[in-house]
Amino acid sequence: MTHVIADDAEALTAARDLAGELAAEAAIRDAERRLPGPELDRLSAGGLLAITVPREYGGADVSARTVAEVFRLLAAADPNIAQIPQSHFVYINVLRRQGTPDQRTFFFAEVLDGRRFGNAQSEAGTRHVQDYRTSLVAAPGGGFLLNGVKHYSTGALFADWIPVLARREDETLHVAYVPRDAPGLTVVDDWNGMGQRTTASGTVRLEDVAVPADRVVPHHLTFQGPQLHGAFAQLLHAAIDVGIAGGALEEAVAFVRTKARPWFESGQERAADDPLVLQRAGELAVKVRAAEALLDAAGAAVDAARADLTDESAAAASIAVATAKAFADPVAVELGNAIFELGGTRSSLDGLNLHRHWRNARTHTLHDPARWKIQHIGRYVLNGQPPPRHGLL
């Protein structure tokens, strides 16, 4: 039986409680590449995957700030588990924006029952990240046929439904919601990244997969007016990076307090009293707290735009999210490295697996380059130029 969360406060309590459980074996899951099936089942059963379902369909419809904080809490415990449902929430949002009433009724009920969305969006070997070759062609007897190969399909291996991004004959983008066990659909667990090892972000192959017309959503319409699709999706990515940074800081502090030795010239008995260690820990804490504050401000901007969606409010939300992510990305990588700076030689022992924080941060922050976010922020600040509506801002 899947629990239905009632409001923001309950969602945050549930996330904190689950994060405490997930943190206990996060290092072991990473080291052994133990896929988190049971952990995801707990995430589903507890109701956290349904917190953005609109109230008129029975959900809590929590704020973007709350969703971001849920992701931050989960990512601090295990960023693999936090990343897996990122697309789940994004494709709930697609239905909210472009789904028909019947589609919303059906799929939101699925989500409230604990069903999970994966994703089959990105493709490898194309000209760039938005050069999609997967085709959605009208079938002779009605409905459509899907053909293509997707990569980086985070969540697909654990999903009940796999949203597939594909182009129609007129090149317009659509999302087809396909059952995980649909004939012609194959999920290959071939993800072998150095970090985020247990996200199972592998390959999805689609060979003449039949899709009924009522399982297809016209995604291209999302970008024809002011929209928060990109801002919301990027907010969750930023939350994962902020969570990684916070989790790394917490583990670094614990290591210094219990295992690290002071440098002999410090004259101190404990590493935690070494003045240079204190200085560095303070610097890192400031960066993590700043990243958390920017994330919260970005969530508030998305919520403000949701309440009054205009070109101006959508642009402000996208810029706020871009600011948070552009700051958080290097902070997460720095914190993953700083564990060794603070912990000393012993912290580098492979059995401790402290390097997972850096590997996770470095891998996840490759999702889209922060340098382009800085470009769009600069154009917005100097010239009032709104960011483009391409879904990555």
TrEMBL record:
Residues 235-368 form the Acyl-CoA dehydrogenase C-terminal domain. This is Sulfur acquisition oxidoreductase, SfnB family. Coiled coil: none annotated. Keywords: Flavoprotein, Oxidoreductase. GO terms for cellular component: cytoplasm. SUPFAM superfamilies: Acyl-CoA dehydrogenase C-terminal domain-like, Acyl-CoA dehydrogenase NM domain-like. GO terms for molecular function: acyl-CoA dehydrogenase activity; flavin adenine dinucleotide binding; oxidoreductase activity, acting on paired donors, with incorporation or reduction of molecular oxygen, reduced flavin or flavoprotein as one donor, and incorporation of one atom of oxygen. It comes from the Bacteria. One of its GO terms (biological process) is fatty acid beta-oxidation using acyl-CoA dehydrogenase. Belongs to the HpaH/HsaA monooxygenase family. Residues 14-114 form the Acyl-CoA dehydrogenase/oxidase N-terminal domain. It comes from Nonomuraea solani. Residues 128-209 form the Acyl-CoA oxidase/dehydrogenase middle domain.
